Every structure is written in structure tokens, then in C-alpha cells.
Amino acid sequence: MSAAGEVHYNSRRSGRSGTARTPNPHRPNPEWVPITARPAATAVNSLPRIQKPLLHRAATGALLLSAALVLSAAPALAPAIELRDVAALAKQRATEPYRAPTEIPAFLQELSYEQARLFRFLPERRLWRTTNSQFQVSFIAPARHQRYPVKIRRVTAEGVRDIPFDREQFDFGDPDLVKRIPPDLGFAGLRLEYPINRAGEPEPVVEFSGASYFRGVGKGGVPGLWARGLAIDTGLPGGEEFPMFREFWLEQPRAGADKMRVFALLEGPSITGGYEFTVTPGDNTRIGVRAEIFTRKPVTMLGLAPLTSM
After folding, report:
1. Hey, which of 38, 104, 122, 195 would disulfide with 42, CB 3.0 to 4.6 Å?
2. 295, 270 in Cβ contact below 8 A?
3. How far apart, in whole angstroms, are the C-alpha atoms of residue 94 and residue 287?
């Protein structure tokens, strides 16, 4: 199944506001689509073309989201990787047994809120800081409930390279704690930064952090609601499943570019997916989302473009 949509994070000055209604997962409505999920072997191109709005409303936190089930293609910005490549990997993973992600050491999960909030990525270590890109990237160290490291790679026209974790990238606020942190701990997520308010001063505009959560912020605004890549069986007696973005690919923008693409591999016990996010910061920061989704086993209730206040 292919899906595409766009998330808008409006600036505070836009005056948009509202309240996101919690959907009833037990009956069909514009937010939730109960389906008999197609197996991974089903060719995506064989699906009928559907263009049906799934969600379109202003929400608290100045977020406006619209999504549609479509079969579409977008022009490539660089030849190194495209959605079809990540989707092919997701399709292959869907034919394999699910493997749960490795958890971080117990002592990091047991940190207090006050200890974990001291973790800070050093600005001088941001990705692309020394290039002419307007975008830079900072990373999030795993701790407490963010207990599953993810793989992150950078993409250029020349190829794809891993971004290694380094304890020297962070200020952990406790010299004794640093000694206990594994040198290959990994990252919990990432933040895209862009000079949205002041020229030459990048600041976070989009964050990917935990499970399949992501959110953004518009010029002069505050972060909006968290969106998710998918919601599975929410509210059903068997319990909800939370697939997670296990791998990310960050495409380096061209000099002066005002948008950036991020690719992600979604994986869970029931489902896999390849995602492409096109981030355009501004008064209304926009996140265009395209995805190809495959199932490992039947899914009763599939939620597209779900929102949560966390």
C-alpha cells in the first residue's frame, strides 16, 4: 500500500488554532480505516488509485495535517537513494521474522528525568555545520523511555555513509556517567535545524524521536502535536502495536536549498514500511510524507496520519 500526505506546523502569527478530536477506533471515519491488510507479496503498483482525504483540521499546538492514499511519484533531488530503495528493503524485511530492537543498558533506562534532561548535543558537532548548507542536524542520546538506538546515515550524490555515535558529541552533565556509556551506544533520534527565525542561527524545526513519532515548528511558533508514521490496532482488546523507525537516511541538501529529505525504515511485529519526508521550514513548516507499507501478518485497524498530544 502506498500513502502520501503533508503535515503543516503553522507559525504562532498565523492565528490558527483548534482542538484535535480523538477518533473512535471501533468504526470507520475519516481518520481511521479498518482494512484487511495486503500481504508483502502484493505488488504496490497493482493497487487501485485512491485519492481520499483522511484528515484535515487545525489542531492545538498550531498543527494542520492532511493526508491522502495515493500512488504518486516525486522528482528526485539526488541519485544516491530514493523511496523505492527504502521500500524494497521494507518489503524484504516483511518476509523475514520480526527481530526486536536491542535495548540500551539498564542504568540508562533507570536515570531520573533530571539526569536525562542534562544530555545535550554539542552545537559544534552538528552535521553539515562546516558546509554551505542551511540545514544542520543534531542527534539525541538514548535514555529513560528512549531505550532503542536507531541507525542513521547521511546521503550524498557519491553514496551513503553511516553516522557513528561518539560520546564526545555530547555533554552528559556527569563525568562519572560518561565513563559508563558504551562507545557504540547509538542515537535515539535526530533534530533538523534551520535558521527559521534569525539568519545564520540554525534551530530545531523538525524532530524524529521514539517509535514513529515526529513533529515540527513554524517560524515564531512552538512545537506542535506529535504525528506518527502509523497507528496499529489502537483501542482494540488485543492492545496497540507501536512500530518504530529503525533506520534513517539524511539527504544532504544542495547549497542554498530551502527543503530537505529524510528517509526512514519503519518496522514492527505486524508491519514494515519505507518513508520519505520532505521538510520545508518557514512561516508554515511543511512535512510532506510518502510511504509504501507492507504487512508481516494481518492488521485489523490501521491508522494513517495519527496525532497525539503525548
Report:
1. 38
2. yes
3. 26
Strand (E) or helix (H) holding 116: helix 113-116
* Alpha-carbon span 206 to 201, nearest angstrom: 15
pLDDT tens across 116-175, in order? 999 999 999 999 998 889 999 999 999 999 999 999 999 988 889 999 999 999 999 999
Place of cell 524524529: 208
* One-letter identity of residue 240: E
Other CB atoms within 10 A of residue 139 CB: 21
Q: Where are the domains of the chain?
A: 2-32+43-227+278-308
- Is the CB of residue 86 less than 8 Å from the CB of residue 263? yes
CB 263 within 8 A of CB 229: no
Average pLDDT, the chain: 79
Q: Report yes or no: 59 and 268 within 8 Å, Cβ to Cβ.
A: no
- Kindly provide the b/e burial profile for residues 217-237, where b requires at least 16 CB atoms within 10 angstroms of the residue's own CB: bbbebebbbbbbbbbbbbeee
DSSP assignment of 28-58 equals: --SSEEE--PPBTTS-GGGSPP---EEEEEE
Calculated CA dihedral for residues 125, 131, 136, 137, nearest 10 degrees: -50
Q: Say how many C-beta atoms besides its own lie within 10 A of residue 144's C-beta.
A: 17
pLDDT at site 42: 32
Residues 203, 163: contact at Cβ < 8 Å? Answer: no
**Rounded CA gap, 111 and 82, in Å?**
38
Helices then strands, counting H and E runs in the chain, come out as 4, 20
Low-confidence residues of the chain: pLDDT under 50: 13-78
User: 10 Å Cβ neighbour count for 174?
Assistant: 14
